[in-house]
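Hi V.,

You were right to ask for the full record rather than a summary. Here it is.
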Amino acid sequence: MAKMWAGRFKKEVDSRVNDFNSSISFDGRMYRHDIMGSIAHATMLGKTGIIDPAESEKIIAGLTGILADLDSGALSFDMEAEDIHMFIEAELTKRLGDTGKRLHTARSRNDQVALDIRLYLRDEVKEISAQVKALAETLCDMAAEHTETIMPGYTHLQRAQPITFGHHLMAYANMLLRDLGRLSDTAGRMNETPLGSGALAATTYPIDRELTSSLLGFDAPTQNSLDGVSDRDFCIELAAAISTIMMHLSRFSEEIILWSSWEFKFIELDDAYATGSSIMPQKKNPDVAELVRGKTGRVYGDLVTLLSMMKSLPLAYNKDMQEDKEAIFDAVDTVKLCLTTFTPMLKTARILKENMRAAAAKGFINATDCADYLVKKGMPFRDAYKITGTLVGICVDSGKTLETLPLSAYKELSGLFEADVFDAIRLETCAMARGALGGPARESVERQIAWMREKLAAY
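Predicted structure:
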């Protein structure tokens, strides 16, 4: 097809350059947003008298018809078109003749594409936020069922102190709440329209940028035309927010992978969210969690692509910036795909409470509580710490635990020990006594869940 910008050139562009230059294969997904922007622009052109209001109405009707035909499949993309903007303008001109040619008055592809990608990503942020919120709500529901399910808490992947499974789940809910905050912040800074910036220096026509901003639901127009067409901070910021979401999902995936192993056996994934082996019939592999973990690196790569693309670009628009779309689209598609499968995988998993409790009984994770028992009876903590460490050493040598060590062994090290020490170091006592704000006690976790639900309701 003839190039809209062909007047300056005496030779046809080499077909290889056309292929290299073309972006419709990936920016075609923005057709709806391109048409939305063009309808707002045409409305403004008519209301300001830049073009005849009757022609403005014809353009709007023509664009509405193109949108309907693309949605229904009656119209397909011309893959010979350079990009989605040129395709839609060419189709409009084909249908309306000279009237269609008036659409691009007081506009450049530079501010057009900057608008389209903001419109597109604004919608995507809403979808991602809804998925993140749904996962956080799932975690709250599961945590409410496991406020008394004892499990070992870890540091350095070593058993550390007794907590509950509900407490553990709420840690991830808090991560996701921060993710929602980052997405919201990103959407707020994204919600300014560059339309009217022109190629870089605005326009001599008496345009009304406030009108197009209002028609498209933006908070305001961008304040500098150079920045309006060359800013991709919002892509980078969204990619960074998505990367953080993926990092959180990857951390959780790593734990699910560990918990699914025979060495832990804390959970069993539903058959619908696991796979087998082509050669080992006993295998049940946590492939969903492993793929989420692997795809996290892919999203990090998208972020680095965007940062590297922008790091040395002079003002204003440069063709390098065409590379923004594939990177941010991939990050968006990947996080949505991961959330779509991660949430039901978690929701359908079987929690093996007995195995969690059995693991918590090993590793002396109640040792701190044993020391605290002595402290509450007046002994300085460091002395209590040393005595408890000695008790642990005795248990290791004798193959016992703090619960099974006889009281006589305790009394040999301190007369402060009485029979009630065994109640003090019960795992349930240890976990439920930690009722401070944010702790694993049932009442504390219930408060965390209530607080979290209130925060999530705001999104």
